[in-house]
Structure formats: C-alpha cells, structure tokens
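Entries read chain and fold; for instance:
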Amino acid sequence: MPQIQADLNELATLDITPLDTPEPELAYLFKHIVTHEVAYESLSYARRASLHEQLAHYLERIDASVVTLAQHYGLSENTAKQREYFYKAARTARKSFANQAALEYYARLLPLLETEREQLKMLHERGELYILIGEWEKAEGDYRDALGLAEALSDPAEMLEGQLAMG
C-alpha cells in the first residue's frame, strides 16, 4: 500500500492523475482521456471484468444508483447481477420516461434470461414500451415472440395474454 500511495502521489505531482477527493476516500482522476484509455486497455479483459465487479460490489454497499451498478456489472462476468441490475435500470428508466435507455437495458437483459417464462415477461414489458413510443411493428414482434413462448409452455393464461396483446 505505501508503494501504491507513493506512485499515486508521483502521478499527481506530474499532473497525470490529480487528486480529486482527499482522505478518507482518496480519489484520483485521469487528466486526459487518452491516458485513461491507454491504462484501461492495457489491462486484460479478465482483469477489467474482475475490477468492475469489485467496484460494483462496493457501490452496492453504498447504495449507488441502479444505472451505475448496471454499468459496472455489465462490464463484469457476473450474469446474475447483470440480470438483476439491467432489469432494475430498465424499470428506473421507464419511470423517468427515458424510453430509449429502457429499451437498451431490455436488449441487454433478454439474452441473459434463463427461462422461457422470464423471457416471456420481458417481451411483454418491452412490447408495452414499444407501444408507448409508437413502435407498433417492434411491439408486434415482441408480442408474437411472447405468444410463441406461451404456446411452447402450453400456458393457456399466457397464450390468452399474448393474443390480447396482439389485438
């Protein structure tokens, strides 16, 4: 730890990573985006994913926003947390009428879902959002996919809901 602190102090002195926040929560910023990108890209994918997951765990403990958690878990390899926070971020975005952001979270979430029933639910939610923004053909596509899943599950209630949604 003393060596890391000495290195950070040297970088701050060189004005590469100036101190942003003092003790007790030290935070440094990269002064130039190019320096940030070079440092970030020099890490292996596995190391970056691990660091993003560690940061996300910390952010969970301090009640960071679901959008921030979705961002960092999204860059990790923790698919369970990705599912959780992509869904929460989609719901949060919908509540604040950030419809395009919600659609992006649904798009990232759908391939991660483990069961057809979960996929069915998300297709209905996304279909409702498409209707809200006037994307009728996309809504119809989601509802058709959901209806197909309901038929595959032989679930009469879900088939009826799918047919009503198509109407």
